[in-house]
Amino acid sequence: MSHHIVEFDNVFFRYPDGTEALRGINFRITHGESVGVVGANGAGKSTLLQHMNGYLMPTSGTVTIGDLSLTKKTRQEFRKKVGIVFQNPDDQLFMPTVFDDVAFGPLNLGLDEAAVRERVHKSLVMVNGLTLQDKPPHHLSCGQKSAVAIAAVMAMEPDILAMDEPAANLDPRSRRSLITLLKTFKHTKIIASHDLDLILDVCERCLVIGGGCVVADGPSSEILSDGKLLEENSLELPLSLQRR
Amino acid sequence: MTFNEKYFDVGRLDRLSYQETWVHRLDPRTKVIATMLFLITVISFPKYEVVALVPFFLYPVLVMTIGDIPFRFIIKKVLAVSPFVIFIGIFNPLLDTGTAAIIPGIPISAGWLSFISILLKFFLTISAALLLIATTSFPGVCHAFRRLGVPSLIISQLFFLYRYLFVLMEEAMRIIRARDMRAFDRRGTGIKVFARLVGTLFIRTVDRAERIYYAMLARGFQGDIPTLKKSRMTATDFAFLVTTIALIFVFRFFSFTEEIGRTVQGLFI
Amino acid sequence: MHMADALLSPAVGTTLWAGTAAVAGFASKKLKSDIDDRMIPLMGVLGAFIFAAQMINFTIPGTGSSGHLGGGMILAIILGPHAAFLVMASILTVQALFFADGGLLALGCNIWNLGFYPCYLIYPFIYKPWVGDSKHSGRILFASVICVVLALQLGAFSVVLQTLLSGKSELPFDTFVLLMQPIHLAIGCIEGFVTAAIINYVRSVRPEILESMAASRPLGAAVSLKKIMVTFVALVVLTGGVLSWFASTHPDGLEWAIEKVTGKGELSEPGQGIVPALKGIQEWTAFLPDYSFKPGAVEPQKEAVPPTWPGIEAGTSVSGIIGAAIVLGMIMLIAMGIRTIRRRDT
């Protein structure tokens, strides 16, 4: 299963305006791992995620998945392997109906009509969203939109699922549904979030990003109970670990 | 109409379009073609024609009844856009004073006839347009346009416009509310503030478009928006179309109303 | 003001639709070949933006009444002519469907009136040469006002022409013009001012946005004067052909319409009037392919309504009124019948 190993090797990234967002990121994620990415605002979490599907290219260093190294030519391949779910589902559900949104990825993969329909069906069933199929996204609630956004990404059957603040706009019940759902996924999961309790629930491993570098990398249970480390990075203990 | 009213208005019409009645289930192409034929026939009537227009009310009435579209809602919307037409039309009775004898002894000016004709045509055409969207979701209408030959770039525009219409209206509402909470006595509602608000909305829109583009790329977008052929015209669609065309033809080219009137007159008078 | 179906005739409506469709097809082709992919979602979302922005009112200084943004000019400045035309077309389509602004047949006229002039005439030939890449806010302000005013004047004047040529309204040319042009002059000044204010604001806060959009425009997007003139001439010929067909089957009607338009009882110099000119176009367009109108097609109309115009026999009589009442009654009965049946089913 080595073709699913995600590796960042000394990755630097500088924005056009000069901001150095990533300063030597190093990590290796093997198949099936669930990894949380935490850090303060502006630490570089989103920038890191944007490298995973080639939206951004490293200024230096390499990003590899399996034997495939990220270049301008291999970007499309990367997008087939990594599915990214963003914070705001409104930005990801851009087609007139839910069906169209979930079918967008498979159609771009070049699948025929029958295969596309099958994928759409499977993905929507996975997120309990089959009844939403013909609705326009603006008729959905926040929780439903999040679910459909995940389905839209899963319909491409990526090997790796990356998520940026997946629970940000969800009410407690939707959030709980999301956590339950994520726990059933066997894919490699990389989740960037401020919701440390979610990370604790879903991810076995945790990366702490600070100032564009990986500041800590280890089991979530250890890292997320290390109050000092968290506070140094403008975080605090997960609410479930704090004593009232 | 205030912003809020317009927003809820559009929203209501949009929600009506997703109902599941018999009319809603017709293929969008059927409804688009029927509507366009209806419209062109109605406006093809000469200037002074009034009574021959009456049978055409069958179409909006039937669609509203079978399609579960509230009468009052449609009528209100028709009235809302009527001022311009009424304003132009009212000059007809004022300027055209030739008389047309209708009932022996009671002369009616031709100008009033043409004005009433305009009003009837107005109601018929506007309600037909509203009912098209009320019984066919906007994406459905766009798919019909696509199958009828409209270039795909334009269809994509329409899809995105529709998708983000409500999102942007909500953002605009938030910005307006923020303005109104700090504007007193009409200070702060002038042009300079407006330009800033709209400018801000514009910038947010551009940023949003960037994020949308990123999301599209992430799902494999390479320049063409793919579509699946979804709907097929059924026998019901053809039956509906044929019936509509037949009725339109009869009502237009045979003095239907006159004949009925004459028959009844002959029976009783 | 938007043109309305009720004031339109099929001839004028279809002509304008043909023109609009041709321009839209042209714009699509131009864009498709070398558009930057990121423009595709951007155009659509900007359409939604203008739509939402049009719903925001602002008070006009001095009058206390409220105004709102039109959009054609600001879109042309930001996106360039082709993209702006398509976005304007989609906005007007959504308005026609959801707000019934004007109607679906008049949509062709409205897209032309509010889209063609700012995007393909005013912007490329006046605004762009004048302002170019200038960041001078004063110049932008002055240019915006002049350009928006011109675009709106052309649009308003077109509404007048379209209404008159349709022949459903009695308003004489001079009165109509006197009504439309001054109002749109005022609206134009305000909108021009607002357009410039928005552009200057965006430029001051996020200049790179406007610059990157200008850079994303397809190369060779410049509009050639020759192409515009050719389009115009084609449209004139098309209209002339339609009008002359009209003239040949309703000889009295056109004369009478022209009487009303010019406000004169008789055309003073028959040798040099509109009618001979149209007759000339008619002879000219007789050489166009597929130009044949069977007189037979006009016959059924003559049966339904007497065709003579000034002498009014309005095709209405007592039987007509009785018939109308009965038909209305039947329609209502049908509707109520359907309602009852459905209530029984549910």
Shape of chain B: globular
Strand order in the largest sheet of chain A:
6-7-8-3-9-10
Cα distance spanning the termini of chain B: 51 Å
Structurally, the number of domains of chain B stands at 2
Task: Count structural domains of chain A.
Answer: 1
Element-by-element helix/strand order of chain B: HHHHHHHEEHHHHHH
What can you see in these coordinates?
The complex is a heterotrimer of chains A (244), B (269) and C (346). Chain A is built from ten helices and ten strands. Chain A has 244 residues and is an alpha/beta fold. Chain A has one domain (2-241): P-loop containing nucleotide triphosphate hydrolases (Rossmann fold, 3-Layer(aba) Sandwich), CATH 3.40.50.300. In chain A, helix 4 packs across helix 5, helix 4 runs parallel beside helix 6 (142-154) and helix 5 (113-126) crosses helix 6. Chain A is globular, with a radius of gyration of 18 Å. Chain A starts with 5 loop residues before the first strand and ends in a 12-residue tail after the last helix. By secondary structure, chain B is mostly helical. Chain B is 72% helix and 3% strand. Chain B is built from 13 helices and two strands. In chain B, strands 1-2 form a two-stranded antiparallel ribbon. Chain B starts with a helix and ends with a helix. The mean pLDDT of chain B is 86. Chain C is mostly helical and 346 residues long. Chain C has three domains: 5-223, Arp2/3 complex 21 kDa subunit ARPC3 (Orthogonal Bundle), CATH 1.10.1760; 238-304, no CATH class; 316-346. Chain C is built from 13 helices and two strands, in the order H-H-E-E-H-H-H-H-H-H-H-H-H-H-H. Chain C is globular. Chains in contact: A-B, B-C. The interface between A and B is medium-sized, with 36 and 32 residues.
Offer a quick outline of the entry:
By secondary structure, chain B is mainly alpha-helical. Chain B contains 13 helices and two strands.
